[in-house]
Structure formats: structure tokens, C-alpha cells
């Protein structure tokens, strides 16, 4: 009688396999948190709610995240990185001013569903929390968008579309904060001047400081 086949120990011990499994479990927690955000628009849910939604255990959660804040930070970082990658693909073949317009349009586009609106609302509040309590981590979250804006400014300078005396890194940071901050005025603008503030308004305003 042949001996019973044993599992291949190289599969069990392969670091790449372990890493893939760990990333899969971490992704499950992030998806569960995103689902809760989409339903409630709030970030004050508990770790236990995430664990129950993901059908895992508290022990498994704490193997990946030490706190709920760490989970939300990882989620925000992932969302920003993936969004910026899409925006880069859409803008990399465009001239500087056109690339800036497309990027601002994408950032300022209204939510396409009530679920997405709830997610956006919840993450906006959480971003404020991050800025106040973990500014270094929040800077890491925003780094991909800052790099993209810097690349667009450099392209515009090289083309002669933007002023050559721009301080690219500093101006990209100011531009980024202007675009992100102005989104909060979408509804407020209608009360202040009778017109909701849209992406086209933001683009026109920003362009005035960049062109000759």
C-alpha cells in the first residue's frame, strides 16, 4: 500500500503564498469596512462590526490591524492610490492644461449612487480626522496625487503652457489642497453666490495662477 501523500511543505512555507493570503484577509476587512461606509456614511463603526461582516475573528483582525484607525488608513490609502493610477492613465497623453482640467473634473465629479455618496461623505470626515491626528500618515495617503499634479505642472512648463518660475512641489501641494478643499463648497456656493461651484470653476481659478 502506498504511503499517504503529504502536503508539499514548500507551498505551506513559501513567503509569497503567505503574503498573498495575508493580503487577501486584509482586503476582506477593508471591503467590509467599505460596505459599512456605503450603508451608513459614518466611520464610527466598531471593529466587531467589521469582523462580523467579514465572517472572520477578532484574532484575525488584530493580526493585520492594531486599531480601527489603522484599517481606515489602509482603506483610504488604497482608494487614493487606485484612483490616482486611473487618473494618471487618463491624463498622461494630454497637454498640461488639458490634463489639469480632466484631473479636476474627475476629482470633483458628483457621486454616481447613494452608496458612493455615503462613502465619499464618510471618508471626507475621516480625512479631517487624519489631518488633525496623523498628519504624516495623511501626507502619505495624498502623496500619489501630489506626484501626479507635480508631473502635470512639469509637463506644462516643458510645453510652454505654464509659467517657468513655478515652484513645482510647493505649487502642486497648494493646488491639491485647493482642489480638494473647494469640493466642500459645491453646495455652499449656491447659497453664497447663487451658483454651485463645479470643477470648471476650480480649473479656471487654478489656471490663472499657472499660465503666463
UniProtKB/TrEMBL annotation:
Which SUPFAM superfamilies does this entry report, sorted A to Z? Homeodomain-like, Tetracyclin repressor-like, C-terminal domain
- Sorted alphabetically, which keywords does the UniProt record give? DNA-binding, Transcription, Transcription regulation
Known DNA-binding region: 46-65
Residue ranges of region Disordered? 1-25
Q: Which InterPro entries match?
A: Homeodomain-like_sf, HTH-type_TetR-like_transc_reg, HTH_TetR, Tet_transcr_reg_TetR-rel_C_sf
Does the record carry DNA-binding as a key word? yes
The molecular function GO annotations come to:
DNA-binding transcription factor activity; transcription cis-regulatory region binding
Domain HTH tetR-type, chain residue ranges per copy = 23-83
Q: Which PROSITE patterns match?
A: HTH_TETR_2 (PS50977)
The protein's name is Transcriptional regulator, TetR family
Can you name the source organism? Mycolicibacterium gilvum (strain DSM 45189 / LMG 24558 / Spyr1) (Mycobacterium gilvum)
Amino acid at each position: 500500500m502506498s504511503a499517504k501523500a503529504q502536503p508539499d511543505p514548500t507551498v505551506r512555507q513559501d513567503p509569497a503564498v503567505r503574503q498573498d493570503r495575508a493580503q487577501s484577509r486584509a482586503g476582506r476587512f477593508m471591503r467590509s469596512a467599505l460596505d459599512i461606509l456605503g450603508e451608513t456614511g459614518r466611520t464610527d463603526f466598531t471593529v466587531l462590526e467589521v469582523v462580523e461582516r467579514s465572517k472572520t475573528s477578532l484574532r484575525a483582525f488584530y493580526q493585520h490591524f492594531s486599531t480601527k484607525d489603522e484599517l481606515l488608513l489602509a482603506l483610504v490609502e488604497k482608494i487614493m492610490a487606485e484612483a490616482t493610477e486611473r487618473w494618471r492613465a487618463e491624463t498622461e497623453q494630454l497637454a498640461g492644461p488639458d490634463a489639469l482640467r480632466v484631473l479636476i473634473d474627475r476629482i470633483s465629479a458628483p457621486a454616481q449612487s447613494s452608496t458612493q455618496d455615503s462613502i465619499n461623505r464618510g471618508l471626507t470626515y475621516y480625512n479631517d480626522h487624519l489631518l488633525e491626528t496623523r498628519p504624516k500618515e495623511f501626507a502619505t495617503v495624498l502623496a500619489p496625487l501630489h506626484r501626479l499634479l507635480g508631473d502635470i505642472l512639469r509637463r506644462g512648463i516643458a510645453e510652454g503652457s505654464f509659467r517657468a518660475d513655478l515652484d513645482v512641489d510647493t505649487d502642486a501641494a497648494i493646488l491639491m489642497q485647493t482642489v480638494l478643499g473647494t469640493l466642500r463648497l459645491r453646495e455652499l456656493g449656491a447659497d453664497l453666490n447663487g451658483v454651485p461651484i463645479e470643477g470648471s470653476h476650480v480649473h479656471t481659478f487654478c489656471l490663472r495662477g499657472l499660465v503666463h
